[in-house]
Amino acid sequence: MHLPDLISDLALILIVAGITTVAFKKIRQPLVLGYIVAGFLTGPYITFIPTVADMENIEVWSEIGIICLMFALGLEFSFHKLANVGGTAIITAMTEVGGLFMFGFTVGHLLGWSTMDSVILGGILSMSSTTIIIKAFDDLGLKGNKFTEIVFGSLIVEDIAGIFIMVFMSTFALSQGAGGREMFVTVLTLLFYLVLWLILGVYIIPTVLKKAKNFMNDETLLVVSLGICFGMVLLLAQTGFSTALGSFMAGSILAGTVFVEKIEHLQKPIKDFFGAVFFVSVGMMVDPAILLRYAWPIVAITLTTIVGKLIFSSLGVLISGQKLKTAVFCGASLTQIGEFAFIITALGTSLHMISDFIYPVIVSVSVITTFTTPFFIKYADIIYSVVKKVIPDKLYEVIKNRTADNQSEIEQDNLWKKFLRSYFLNLLIISFVSIGIYQLGVHFISPALGSLMPDIRGRLLTTGIMLVLMAPFLVALLRKNDKSFSALFIKSKANFFPLFVFIITRVAIAVAFVVLTIYKFMHIPIGWLIVPAFIFIVLLSRSDWILGKSLQIKARFLVNLNEKISFEKEESGGDDGHDPGWLLEELWVSAYCATRQYLESDRTLRDLRWKKLFGVSVIKVISGENHINMPDGDQKINAGDIVYLHGTKTQMDAFHHAVTQGSRNNDGIMSQYSEIVTLSGFIKKQNDEREEDRLFCYGVQMNKDPRFAGKNIKKTVLCKQWNCDVIGVKRDRYPIIFPDAQFVVHKNDRIWLLGGDGLAAKLAAEEHMQNGPGGKKAV
To answer: Beta partners for 670?
Structure first.
């Protein structure tokens, strides 16, 4: 009976790979090397043992291997990991990537390689191997040391750099023969689709998985997750990206869900199998004749990799403010290239961007540096001693005096930094989504309606649909409530003009989207549209209903994005959602005493607009012997009154600066009466007060009363009827602090209220009150 070549080839490589991996495991070497040797033995260049019959089948299987490996890498990656990477790791990775890129590019040119070969070589040499480093750290028992955390953080940033390299390669392949302008447009187009699919993926996929949770057993979850992976591969391949990038994106989206650990466990055998086939196919590309011919380049690139990574990685750690010893240990740990280099080289070969000889050269360098890495890590102390002796004493003293292990961990409270980060992130996301909606209208909605209604009715309906779809996002752009803005506005007159420019920019972008949409479908001259579009934007920004829809979209996105981390916090803290500890430690309270100057202004709390300007709320006023809990907007402040406010740490800091230092003169309008403490600490300090003077926190489950579910906080009249403040909402484990009045309550939400003792009776009467630890009050 004749077996298909695919089966016989698979049998051969698995048998040989089984033998080589067991042997390499025996000698305590990475399994990747065993697979490469297996591929070398079964490849077309070794004839004294059976070899594969059909290389095309192996190439297809190896492509699946790349997809599975990148999917697994994406599952281990998350946006929170990237956000939590310290400044040291970022500086180290960027210094290493930039330095090695130039170093590798220069060496490639010195070897006589083409410009593109040299560029790709620089990119390849900047990628270290996560697999090899983890294996070395485990064998040497070094996990948990400070330098290992820096190394792992640097590897995360390097992975992102690798993704951008693949984006560049895909862009270049699509733009070959095009001019610089066309290539720039292609890059922007690809990046646009990449970010758009990422945003939509975070918004849609976790929601669908949660709704289908009851139908998910191991089998269906595996099939669904792989379907998402290969679906994203197909989608991105249609827009010009590589299959590796598509699978990485799918994995990174799923990494934020509560299913990620289960998915990792289920797909591990698949990843191991197809990954093994990929690494075997890498070994098959090694031609002994080419290795002999390019022996000198292999040696040169190996030395470039080791020396370059040791220098630039150590330099990056030093620049970030770490000690010399920590820098040398980090540099010694990163002296190799590995699996990501194989993937980039394979992509370059498949896109016909690099010469064929580069693949076996890179594989050889990787094998050599894989063997040398454990020795560099093991003897990093000796390397440090040599470096310490070689560098001049004066230079060593400068390094010693200007670095400290904890320097990179010190965070400066920079209001401009917070404002700009929030401003541009919000602007970027809304712009990408709005452009996506515009493209949806141009390519799908307009043709569909045009075929049904080819006259002006079709164009009017298309324009209306487009503006309705854009409306929640334009409102989010216009009504972005950033408390750093108010703090900067009050802090200095010098901030007025740049802040005004930022406001004008947001309005201009919103008007531009409206003008562009109407112009595209109605063909009205742009000059006639600017004023009507501005009026439309103003009316839109005043719509509470549209704002509610915008907040719903934002809440779902944040809940999905933080799903996994919220679940882990709840599990580690034993929080079942009924304990408000998460909230009481996030909110802060401080008291201020009103001065005479403040009394003369004769303004109410409503006039002062502290909630609007800073986000802080007045929760108590003590006027003489009277305790006024949760005062309304008509409450006036007399000289000597004690005013208690609460908010987040950033909000309280902004308020403190404004009222104690004065916004227009040297005299503050209030003086601080008590130190800032957490809301939890404030509530506990009230034990000596009378029951009727104290404030308490209560949890209300919204699914117990249909009068509240589906309505915004303003319409539920909770605050007005019960004389309380909604200080937080927990939705699917994700905490939302100080929700807007237009925030729509869902039936499974838990709302946390802050109010006086009278609130307890009203809650009990409504049968909503949730017993807390130690009594009927939640705190």
So the answer is: 594
